[in-house]
Write a structure and sequence with these properties.
With 318 residues, the chain is an alpha+beta fold. It has two domains: 9-47, no CATH class; 56-309, Sulfite Oxidase, Chain A, domain 2. 20% of the residues lie in helices and 21% in strands. It is built from eight helices and 13 strands. The chain has helices at 17-42, 74-79, 92-96, 121-125, 154-161, 199-203, 255-259, 302-305; strands spanning 61-62, 106-111, 117-120, 131-138, 143-153, 169-174, 194-198, 208-213, 216-217, 227-229, 242-248, 283-286, 293-294. Strands 1, 4, 5, 8, 9, 10, 12 and 13 form an eight-stranded mixed β-sheet that branches. It is globular and about 45 Å long. It starts with 16 loop residues before the first helix and ends in a 13-residue tail after the last helix. Mean pLDDT is 88; it is low at 1-49.
């Protein structure tokens, strides 16, 4: 499958977002009308799509920083995904999720820390109490969700690893397994997927490692068995299916910045005043809603995180 974006593609050949969305809406509407007519003629009703539900997680307590906004339905969260390792279309991750093997699974912690170690995922889960945190998720394509994640803060885990004074950044790596992740057999991105945070961002109490959603085990298409969630940044910063965490002195490379540095910066904070080169970031469409809403600076978490970037030019460090 060819990549969705090419650096040599002239702007004149790129379909405007508004036209693309309307085209998809038109196709979806036409398909719905045709389906309705077919079932009407047949004298029966269509069956609802079956969304597999993962096992429940025990001992999940409410966590801090949550929003009381309407939660996005489980079905939408698990069938409309960006997870290029499982495919570039929004429906591909759910269709290919069964290929990803999440046991056995270990996460390697290495680099500038006093206690490097390899931890089995189930051992890691036993170290920290699980919390439910209802966070907004804002994607760079200008759509958003409200997701009840289950996980634990990254900060206390980092403290246990005892970073040295040279640890300025945290670099994350996704599993590399082309036989399980068909998207990795394409040139859509350079594999494996990598991401990074500044140390103070990683230590911030809003930053969590998620292992579930809606009180249940995290589905494969949403980044099982463990993923990062950084709610004030665009969704692609919240790397999925993590196998390695490395503490480094220099700013680490990140996958989308490698692919298109003029479009995706290292920080990738949600900023309605800094547009993507091909579309505005000033508003967004919440999945399940028809209307568009104003995008909030730092995705609405400015009170908690704006101080991390005091004195920085957020147009330059986008």
């Amino acid at each position: 499958m060819p990549p969705l974006w090419r650096p040599d593609m002239p702007p004149s050949e790129i379909t405007p977002e508004r036209t693309y969305v309307r085209r998809r809406d038109f196709i979806a509407g036409g398909a719905a009308a045709a389906t309705g007519l077919t079932f009407a003629l047949a004298g029966c009703k269509p069956k609802a799509a079956v969304v597999p539900v993962e096992p429940a997680l025990a001992g999940v307590a409410p966590g801090p920083f949550g929003t009381d906004e309407t939660r996005t339905p489980y079905k939408d969260i698990t069938t409309y995904n960006n997870f290029y390792e499982l495919g570039t279309d929004k429906s591909d991750p759910a269709a290919n999720a069964h290929l990803l093997k999440t046991r056995p699974w270990t996460v390697t912690f290495e680099g500038e820390i006093a206690k490097p170690q390899v931890i089995d995922i189930d051992t890691l889960l036993g170290r920290f109490p699980l919390e439910e945190r209802v966070y907004r998720l804002r994607c760079v394509e200008a759509w958003s969700m409200v997701i009840p994640w289950v996980g634990f803060p990254l900060g206390p885990l980092i403290k246990q690893l005892q970073p040295t004074s040279r640890a300025k950044y945290v670099a994350f790596t996704t599993k590399l397994a082309p036989d399980e992740m068909p998207g990795q057999r394409t040139g859509a991105l350079e594999w494996p997927y990598v991401e990074g945070l500044r140390m103070d961002e990683a230590m911030h109490p809003l930053t969590i490692l998620a292992v579930g959603l809606y009180g249940r085990v995290l589905p494969n298409q949403d980044g099982a068995p463990i993923r990062l969630v950084v709610p004030w940044k665009y969704g692609f910063k919240s790397i999925k299916s993590i196998v390695r965490v490395r503490f480094v002195e220099a700013e680490p490379p990140t996958s989308w910045n490698r692919r298109a540095p003029n479009e995706y910066g290292f920080y990738s904070n949600v900023n309605p005043e800094v547009d993507h080169p091909r579309w505005s970031q000033a508003n967004e469409r919440r999945i399940g809603e028809l209307r568009r809403r104003q995008t909030l600076a730092f995705n609405g978490y400015g009170k908690e995180v704006a101080g991390l970037y005091a004195g920085m030019d957020l147009r330059k460090f986008f």
